[in-house]
Write a structure and sequence with these properties.
single chain; mainly alpha; Hypothetical protein af1432; 10 helices
Length: 183
Amino acid sequence: MENLLAFILRVMSARDPYTQEHSARVTDLALELAREINLPPVRTVTLEFAARIHNIGNIAISESILHKPGRFTEAESVMIQQHTILGAKIIEPLELDPIIGLVILHHHENYDGTGYPHKLKAEEIPIEARILRIADTYDALIHPRMYRPAYSEEAALAIMEESRSCFAPELLEAFFKMDSIQA
């Protein structure tokens, strides 16, 4: 499994070095949150693997879109949103734990049902994907994107607080209490 993960990470990094750095940071945050809520070890292992490769679908997205310096058009946003579906399909033949595919597929679902790709809500979303949603959002906010500068940690937490309906309430509260994100 380690060799497979190393291979996948190498492929992802060759396509987009930012993705590997982002995934490593998101994994660390997700694992810290998993510890905070006492996620069972077997689920934590699944979360770790899924977090490391959660954006694997980006390898199927055009570089001109991935590296676009400005805001996405509506059509480009739709293409970017496909990365969750593409990622789940890419790893399907590997016959990994099915939860890994579900986490990749659903890591942009919102707790209130407004996310993508299937508009799942609350407990319909695997807990690993709910954890990843929080860690992924925070990391994306505190690091610069092609279309905007990074937010401060305080501003990122405020944005997440304002968007709290997107996140599982008990997980968000646990995240806010984590030592690594205390402002």
